[in-house]
Specification:
By secondary structure, the protein is of the alpha/beta class. It has 13 helices and ten strands. Helices cover 41% and strands 14% of the residues.
């Protein structure tokens, strides 16, 4: 398997706790967090993440973990996003599959993972929890998670309802928390990594940027759409439903926004046909950008190419060191 060629290591509490060379984490992404991408990120010195609910069952997740281990001997983790649902997935069974396969790093998101923390701790699993507010981060710290990934308003997915950007949210979290903070949202290059470290974070989490790499299991049309997009080419959907999501600006997401803005309001049933997860999966796999939602953050404005994971991470580390050196010269 390939190895990152840089001999240097960036040492923070995050790299020490997770056993990785560089403090760069690939966020969990539905339909994207598969073995091909996770193993490539880990082999390049970051932390790759499999997405549990991308797999149709806990048994399928176990097989995907084993497949990933055939591709890398470096640490990788599993994302488990816990969301309210009329018919929720069998979260307990997914947890047992993760533990049973010997995974030692889990990224949790959505609702609090407090029901599973004791089980993870008993099995020496490090818990990285993603939050969009300081109050939730403090609660997660009190419940025993090991690392907080603080997600600014720029991010893809669900940025919460407070609309606080990373430039404010990252240092607020770093000052208030005793455990390490990872910066998430709007980061796609070494400039962003340097900024995050300067703001008090000890690593970064990237989702959208890792969609536009050679190893990402997405159709090339989707990757090219991310390259073409500018920082103005995302839509905020579900605003009126108080479950804000940030997605790529397409005919589908434009229709969702228009429906939400119509006189008389909007219910979820009014947009259900547009936002189904299976439609989004179809878009990613067929390359039809207008087949369903494509989740993406404002960082698309920084994406100009489709490198390998190794090329991207090495470039980020080099850029970060250059930016920090330049900044230090001002003092």
């Amino acid at each position: 398997m390939r190895r990152a060629s840089l001999e240097i290591v960036m040492k923070t509490r995050v790299t020490e706790m997770l056993g990785i060379r560089y403090p760069i984490v690939q966020g969990g992404m539905q339909w994207v967090g598969r073995a091909e991408l996770a193993s490539a990120v880990s082999n390049a010195g970051g932390l790759g993440i499999l997405t549990a609910l991308t797999q149709e069952s806990p048994e399928a997740l176990s097989r995907e973990i084993r497949r990933c281990r055939q591709m890398t001997d470096r640490p990788f983790g599993v994302n488990l996003t816990i969301l309210p649902s009329v018919k929720p997935p069998p979260y307990v069974e997914y947890v047992e599959a993760i533990i049973g396969e010997g995974i030692k790093i889990i990224e949790t998101a959505g609702n609090s993972p407090k029901d599973f923390i004791a089980r993870f701790k008993t099995n020496d699993v490090r818990i990285l929890h993603k939050c969009t507010t300081l109050r939730h981060a403090l609660s997660a710290e009190a419940n025993g998670v090991d690392i907080i990934s603080i997600d600014g308003f720029e991010c893809a997915g669900h940025p919460g309802e407070d609309d606080i950007g990373g430039l404010v949210l990252i240092p607020i979290a770093a000052r208030a928390l005793k455990i390490p903070v990872i910066a998430s949202g709007g980061i796609g290059d070494g400039w962003g990594l340097a900024a995050a470290l300067a703001l008090g974070a000890e690593g970064v989490n990237m989702g959208t940027r890792f969609c536009a790499v050679k190893e990402a299991p997405l159709h090339d049309n989707i990757k090219q759409a991310l390259v073409r997009a500018t920082e103005r080419d995302t839509n905020l959907i579900f605003r009126t439903l108080h479950n804000t999501g940030r997605v790529l600006k397409t005919s589908v997401s434009n229709e969702v926004v228009e429906t939400e803005r119509r006189p008389g309001g909007c219910t979820f049933d009014d947009i259900r046909r547009l936002v189904s997860g299976q439609r989004g999966r179809t878009a990613l796999e067929t390359g039809d950008i207008d087949a369903g939602l494509v989740w993406a953050g404002e960082v698309v404005g920084l994406i100009n190419d489709i490198p390998s994971c190794e090329e991207l991470i090495e470039r980020m580390v080099a850029e970060c060191r250059q930016r920090l050196a330049t900044a230090s010269s001002y003092c």
